[in-house]
Specification:
This protein has about 100 residues and is α+β, with helices and mostly antiparallel strands. It is built from three helices and four strands, in the order βαββααβ.
Length: about 100
């Protein structure tokens, strides 16, 4: 499994436009081969963390290079984000528990 950890802060003037684009990207990601899940968390200080799981590096790469996603990333740099960081991580071990 491959995880993408995307940490970001939105510009104050971009929230409404961002939300529409984020909704579309969420819908699109779910259609990608190898997609497993994603979740978004927002900290009290406004930092957003998105964690995306794909089956493997090829599936993650396909998402990263999808034309609509590439356009959204460009718009994010130009319009939405005051800052962000991105980490793509290979999972070397996974343990789960549930009742």
């Amino acid at each position: 499994m491959v995880l993408t950890v995307f940490r970001s802060r939105l510009r104050e003037d971009a929230r409404d436009a961002y939300m529409a684009t984020a909704q579309r990207m969420s819908e699109l990601a779910r259609t990608m081969p190898g997609y497993r899940s994603h979740k978004v968390f927002v900290a009290d200080d406004g930092e957003r963390v998105t964690i995306v799981e794909f089956e493997d590096e090829a599936a993650q790469r396909q998402w990263a290079t999808h034309l609509e996603h590439v356009a959204a990333k460009k718009r994010g740099r130009e319009t939405f984000y005051s800052e962000y960081s991105l980490q793509v991580c290979a999972v070397t071990r996974e343990t789960r528990f549930g009742r």
